[in-house]
Design brief:
This protein is mainly α. Helix content is 81%, strand content 0%. The protein contains 18 helices and no strands. Helix 1 runs antiparallel to helix 8, helix 3 packs parallel to helix 5 and helix 6 runs antiparallel to helix 13.
Length: 481
Amino acid sequence: MMRENQKWMVVVAVLLGSFTMILNNSMLNPAIPTFIDVFETDVVSAGWIITIFMVAMGMTVPVTGYLGDRFGKKRTYLIGLALFVVGSIIGTFSWNLSSLITFRALQGIGGGIMMPLSMALIFEAFPKRERGLATGVWGIASMMAPTIGPTIGGILLETTSWHYLFITNAPFGLIGLWFAWKYLPNTTPNRQVQFDKVGFFLVTLGVGSILFAFARMSSVADLTHPTNLILLIVGIIWMYLFVKVEKQVQQPLLDLSLFRIPVYTYSILLTTISSIGLFAGIFLIPLLIQQAFGLSAIVTGLVFLPSALFTGIFMTVGGRILDKKGAKGVITSGLLVLAVGTLVMGFMSIETSLAFIIFWMAIRGIGNGLSSMPSTTTGMNAVPDRLVSRGSALNNVARQMSSAFAVVFISIFYEVRRGQIMTSSSTFSLEQASVQAINEAFIFVGILTFLTIPIGYMLEKKSKEEDLKERKMEEKKQAVR
């Protein structure tokens, strides 16, 4: 068993890598207009800078479980982080749009390797009753980085040049590499693991097609575009074939038998829905602050900061409660707080103060912190140790797909409802119509979150039953000794 300080250095090592990767990706969002001017291109072409990262990462995640088992988790994680750092450094020297998109794809492959293995490495370092706090601290990266990234990106663009969006990754990434090389535990490669070639082919095409289609959609016209419809249909067919094949192979790429574990299945459902809620907020608030209220991107970032701060604090609080008392109560409490906070955000007007928005965004942060990472950790705790890498990869696939779907769904909903409100009433200004559409989106997400509370309850109940079984088995073993 590792010493206490060694275990926490594992968390620091993977947190550095994860935070750098997620922060960089979110920093690039406000830079699209800049790239359009610099490379003299259009919105669709420049959008590939964001799209290619998401698609490359989504296509890489499914194979990460196999790579970690076959070559060792530490070695594979180091390769993933190194790819991301190299992509960042050479991205600084991009000479045209095509080269930048290529280097962003390299970053995405590195990120797809890093994220699932981060959790797997933490699970190897910590015993079951200490993982809640550890994953809560690590989860700060995945929750805080997307909220502060656009603000940092905006400041860098205003004060320097776009090159600094990439080169700033280098020192943090290199520090992360050193920490990972020094502190991550060596894991023994399993030479007996076989590569599921057919499964890899099917899931890569399936996930890639669906994510590519989602990335191309931002309006109703995009939703009904023949190319996008074909991509979605083909992607779904590939995924259906993938599921059929995985049920038959002896060593599947993604072990779908994990869904036979009720606790894990409930946690995946909550992960999927919580990702929709998280990215809906990340999408809607900038629209509210900048389009409806006419304020700057920096103000938008400041509105997000308390939410990010409270999410981070209560992730660690929720993790500590999970370790000491188990899952009962903490996840459902978080979901209830999150649902209430989200619903209240559905009753704003053009006169609503920033203080109101900041307060209720902070309340949402508390709910998110108490529910998101504790539910994921509880589900992963139910996975056998030998399958942790596969379980983490499957969890990340669900998160990638649901977050992409959330952005597509909310953006189209916003566009359609705002248009309907404007045409149905001549008394509504464009700003008022925008606020009303945002309100309705928040109400929908709030109701969806309320509907997850029974799932959270079932997760807590099943987790308690599993804990009791484990304790009885442990008592029997001790009695035999």
